[in-house]
Design brief:
It contains 26 helices and nine strands. With about 575 residues, it is α/β, with parallel strands linked by helices. Helix 16 links the parallel strand 1 and strand 2. It is globular and about 95 Å long. The relative contact order is 0.09.
C-alpha cells in the first residue's frame, strides 16, 4: 500500500514536549514531594542497626502468617544483611511501599467511582487495558522527560504499571455486594456514604485487599526496569550484574528480591485476618506500629540537619551533587567512580541509568539553561547537537585517547574467510562515524543511515572489501551495545557484509554479554571494544577466547562533560 505513514510518533513527541514545558512547575513540585516522602520512608526504615527492622518484620510476619513464616522471614532478612544487600533492600522496600501508598490513595477512589458510575467504568476500563498491555519500558521514556533521571521516574512508572489491579478489584468487589443487602440499607434510609462505608466497602474488603496485594507485587517486579533510569536498590544490583556477567551477584540480588516479595506477599494477604488475632487484636498491633512509624518520622524530621552546604551557589548545590551516568557495566562508569576518589569528591555520587536517559536529562537541562554534569565520550552526536565541553582531567583518571577495536570469534577465518577479511580491513574516522550518528539522531532508521553512508563512500568501502571473497548466504551475527557510536558502526559493517553476500543479524546486548557472546561463539563479531581502558576488564577476562583484529577507529575520548555555559573547567572545580 502507498498510503503515507501516519506521523503518530511525531505527534506523541510534540505532545510530550508541550506537556513537559507547560507543566514543568507541577512536575518539579511532584518530584520534590515524592523524593521527600521517599527519604522519610528510607530514614524510618534505617533507624538503628539492621537487626531492629529485621526483628520488627519477623514479628509482623509471625503475627499475620504464623511462626514458621516468621522464622523464614527472620532468616531471609539476616541472610540479605550478611550478603551485603541490606541498604539496597531498604531502598527497594521504600520504593515499593511508596508506590503501594500511591496506588491505594489513587486506585481505591477511582475503583469506587467506577463502581458507582457506569460511564466512568466505560472510560477507565480501556485505559486500564492500555496500561496493563503497554510494555513497562515505555513508561520510562516520558517519565525521564517529566521528572528527570533518578528514583522519581522509577516510582511513577511502577505506580502506573501497578495501579490497574487495585482499581479493577475495588470496582469488582463493590459490584459483587449482594443486591438484597443494598436494598436493605436503602430501606433503613441509609445515605450513599453510609451504604459505601458501612455495607459495600466492608463486604468488598477481601477483594480490594487482593487487588492491593497484586499491585504491590507488580510494583516490586518493576524494580529492575526502574533501575534503567537511575532508581537505586536491588534492581540496580541485578542490572549491574547482568551488564557485567556476574552470575553470583545476580543470584544474590535476585534472591534478595524473592525474599522481600514473599514477605510482602504474606503480610498483605493476611492483614485482614492475622493468624494470631485471637491472642492480640489487630487494631492494637497496627495502632502500635502506626504510632512507632509516625513518631519516628516526626523525630527524624526535627533532628535532620538542614544547615546545608556552605556554598549554596556552588556547582555541587546546583546539581544536587549528582553526576549523570549511563549503564552500570560501562567502563566509563568505573572511571567516573574512580574520579570521585582521585579528586576527593566525597559528597558527589554517580547516578546509574542508561545512555538514552543520560542524553534525555542533558537535553532537559540545556533547554532550561540549568547546570548538569554527565559522563561523556567522543564521538557522540550530542557534541554536534549541543554546545558542550570536557572538564579537564589533571589526574588523568579517564586516561588519554582510546581506540575502538574489532573482535571476532575463533574459527571465523575458516568458516567465513570473506567476512573475516572485511572485518580485518574495516577502518574509518570520527567524522565518518558522526555523519551516520547525526542522521540517526535526526530520525532516520539506523539501517537506512548506514546504507546512505555506504552509498556515499564507495572508495572507503572498496578498501574494506578489497580481496574479500563474496559470501554465499553464510550467517553472520553481530553484537553491539546500545551506544550511538556502536549503533552506527555495527549497522555500517552489517550493510557492507550484506552487500557482499552474507546473512547478517544484529543483536543489541549489554557490554558483558557482548564480549561473552563472541568468546563462546554464540556471536561472530563486534566492532565495539573500547580500549585500552573503557572495556579493559572485559577484554582481559575473555582475551584468550577471542581474536582481536585491532582498531577500526582511533582518537576516542572519555570524561566528564558539561554545557559550555556552566562556569567550571576542571574536575578540580567540583571540590
Amino acid at each position: 500500500m502507498n498510503i503515507p505513514k501516519i506521523p503518530l510518533g511525531e505527534w506523541i513527541d510534540s505532545l510530550v514536549g508541550w506537556v513537559t514545558v507547560t507543566f514543568s512547575a507541577f512536575f518539579s513540585f511532584l518530584t520534590s514531594l515524592i523524593e521527600g516522602l521517599l527519604n522519610i520512608i528510607i530514614d524510618v526504615l534505617s533507624v538503628g542497626p539492621p537487626i531492629v527492622l529485621i526483628c520488627i518484620l519477623g514479628l509482623l510476619v509471625t503475627y499475620t502468617s504464623r511462626w514458621p513464616l516468621g522464622i523464614f522471614a527472620l532468616i531471609s532478612l539476616l541472610l540479605i544483611d550478611n550478603l551485603g544487600y541490606w541498604d539496597s533492600s531498604i531502598q527497594t522496600l521504600a520504593i515499593v511501599l511508596l508506590s503501594g501508598l500511591l496506588t491505594i490513595t489513587i486506585g481505591i477512589p477511582i475503583g469506587i467511582w467506577c463502581a458507582q458510575r457506569k460511564t466512568v467504568q466505560n472510560i477507565v476500563t480501556p485505559i486500564l487495558d492500555f496500561m496493563q498491555t503497554m510494555p513497562a519500558f515505555v513508561y520510562l521514556i516520558p517519565s525521564i522527560l517529566f521528572f528527570g533521571i533518578g528514583i522519581v521516574p522509577g516510582i511513577i512508572a511502577s505506580f502506573i504499571f501497578a495501579i490497574a489491579p487495585t482499581i479493577r478489584m475495588t470496582n469488582l468487589g463493590i459490584q459483587e455486594v449482594p443486591e438484597d443487602l443494598i436494598e436493605a440499607a436503602d430501606a433503613f434510609g441509609s445515605s450513599n456514604s453510609q451504604k459505601l462505608f458501612k455495607v459495600q466497602l466492608p463486604l468488598a474488603t477481601p477483594t480490594i485487599m487482593a487487588g492491593i496485594n497484586q499491585s504491590i507485587m507488580l510494583a516490586l517486579s518493576m524494580v529492575v526496569t526502574a533501575s534503567l533510569v537511575g532508581a537505586p536498590g536491588l534492581g540496580a544490583d541485578v542490572y549491574r550484574a547482568v551488564s557485567q556477567i556476574n552470575v553470583g551477584q545476580g543470584f544474590e540480588a535476585g534472591l534478595s528480591i524473592v525474599f522481600i516479595a514473599i514477605i510482602l506477599d504474606r503480610i498483605t494477604q493476611n492483614l485482614r485476618k492475622p493468624a494470631y488475632e485471637g491472642i492480640l487484636k489487630r487494631k492494637i498491633v497496627f495502632s502500635i506500629l502506626a504510632v512507632l512509624v509516625v513518631v519516628t518520622a516526626i523525630v527524624l524530621v526535627f533532628l535532620k540537619d538542614n544547615t546545608g552546604n556552605e556554598n549554596a551557589n556552588g556547582i555541587g548545590a546546583q546539581t544536587d551533587y549528582k553526576i549523570i551516568g549511563i549503564e552500570p557495566g560501562a567502563g566509563i562508569m568505573a572511571q567516573a567512580k574512580n574520579s570521585l576518589t582521585d579528586y576527593g569528591l566525597d559528597d558527589w555520587k554517580i547516578v546509574e541509568g542508561s545512555s538514552a536517559a543520560m542524553v534525555a536529562e542533558l537535553k532537559k537541562a540545556i533547554d532550561n539553561q540549568k547546570p548538569i554534569i554527565v559522563t561523556g565520550w567522543s564521538p557522540h552526536w550530542m557534541f554536534q547537537a549541543f554546545d558542550l565541553k570536557y572538564l579537564d582531567d589533571p589526574n588523568n583518571t579517564f586516561g588519554g585517547a582510546e581506540h575502538i577495536n574489532t573482535i571476532v570469534r575463533k574459527g571465523l577465518e575458516q568458516d567465513a574467510p570473506g567476512a573475516y577479511t572485511i572485518f580485518d580491513q574495516f577502518s574509518w574516522n570520527i567524522s565518518d562515524m558522526e555523519a551516520v550518528m547525526v542522521e540517526v539522531h535526526k530520525g532516520m532508521d539506523p539501517a537506512e543511515a548506514a546504507e546512505k553512508w555506504v552509498a556515499a563512500n564507495p572508495d572507503k568501502v572498496a578498501e574494506w572489501t578489497n580481496g574479500a571473497q563474496s559470501g554465499n548466504g553464510e550467517p553472520i551475527k553481530l553484537v553491539y551495545v546500545a551506544w550511538d557510536t556502536e549503533l552506527a558502526s555495527t549497522n555500517v559493517i552489517g550493510t557492507v557484509l550484506r552487500q557482499n553476500g552474507y546473512d547478517v543479524t544484529l543483536s543489541q546486548v549489554e557490554v558483558g554479554p557482548m564480549f561473552a557472546g563472541v568468546a563462546n561463539g554464540s556471536a561472530d563479531a563486534m566492532v565495539a571494544a573500547w580500549l585500552p581502558s573503557t572495556h579493559l576488564e572485559y577484554y582481559n577476562t575473555y582475551k584468550k577466547d577471542i581474536v582481536d583484529l585491532g582498531p577500526n577507529l582511533q582518537g576516542t575520548k572519555n570524561g566528564l562533560v558539561v554545557p559550555k555555559y556552566v562556569e567550571i573547567d576542571s574536575i578540580d572545580d567540583l571540590k
